[in-house]
Amino acid sequence: HEGAYSIMQAYDSVMLKADVEIGGTDQKFNLLAGRSLMKKLALPPQDVITLPLLIGLDGKKKMSKSLNNYIGIAEEPNEMFGKVMSISDEMIVDYARLASGIEDFEVLEMEKEIKLGENPKNIKERLAVQIVRRFYNESRAEKARERFNLQFAKKEIPEDIPEANYELGTCKDLPQMLLDLKLVNSKSEARRLVLGGGVKIDGAKIEDTQAPICGHEGMIIQVGKRRFL
């Protein structure tokens, strides 16, 4: 089946009379199959360019939305910054080289600092600033850094929490409340978060999906590590 699939992909190159085809290193076999088929059909074989794959946040597989191990380029700066800070120390150099847009000599300097014993967290923070700056701007990147340090390094609740109106005294089970407040896309997602210990009310972890939660003024809901309301 794999061979037949490669031939079908290779035929794209024939139909397009491609000069160059670009793909990830995982597509090298398919790209070369295109060259072989073009030769057999008396066409000039395409040149092939392969690019390294960026490993996702799980540290195992290539970054993919379907695997939910990705950093979206349209995500909010705080979310983007936090996700970069969550990568393993071993992935810092690859992310600097493949995702940050910084020059090669800067990546080499970063790699040298790590080998000389610099705290990887400090280097990762600079990397996160650079990546957010690349997709937004300097100001948004610095604000994301400040918020991250306030929230995690100092173990405090950030000041700029978004607010929502909710009828005071209304009591509902937590999954329904999270759905009402648009913090989740479904009650099943909410239940998974609650059962996994990923939801806090006023700093207290709630793991009972049936417990009635009553809305009160100033109530702070935390979902996961970075979402507050």
Please characterize this protein's 3D structure.
The protein is 46% helix and 11% strand. It has helices at residues 2-16, 28-40, 77-85, 92-99, 104-115, 120-135, 138-153, 174-180, 187-195; strands at 20-24, 47-51, 171-173, 199-201, 204-205, 212-214, 221-223, 227-228. It is extended.
**Share in β-strands:** 5-15%
**Major sheet: order of its strands?**
5-4-7-8
The number of E-state strands comes to 8
Helix content: 40-55%
Question: Which descriptor suits the 3D outline?
Answer: extended
Quaternary structure of the protein: single chain
Distance between the termini: 50 Å
Q: Give the radius of gyration.
A: 24 Å
Order of helices and strands: HEHEHHHHHEHHEEEEE
Structural class: alpha+beta
Contiguous low-pLDDT stretches (5 residues minimum) are: none
Task: Give the gist of this structure.
With 229 residues, this protein is α+β, with helices and mostly antiparallel strands. The protein has nine helices and eight strands.
Distinctive features:
9 helices, four-stranded antiparallel beta sheet, 11% strand, 229 residues, two-stranded parallel sheet, extended
SSE blueprint:
Blueprint: H1 2-16, E1 20-24, H2 28-40, E2 47-51, H3 77-85, H4 92-99, H5 104-115, H6 120-135, H7 138-153, E3 171-173, H8 174-180, H9 187-195, E4 199-201, E5 204-205, E6 212-214, E7 221-223, E8 227-228
Parallel strand pairs: 1-2
Antiparallel strand pairs: 3-6, 4-5, 4-7, 7-8
Helix pairs in contact: 1-2, 3-6, 3-7, 4-6, 6-7, 8-9
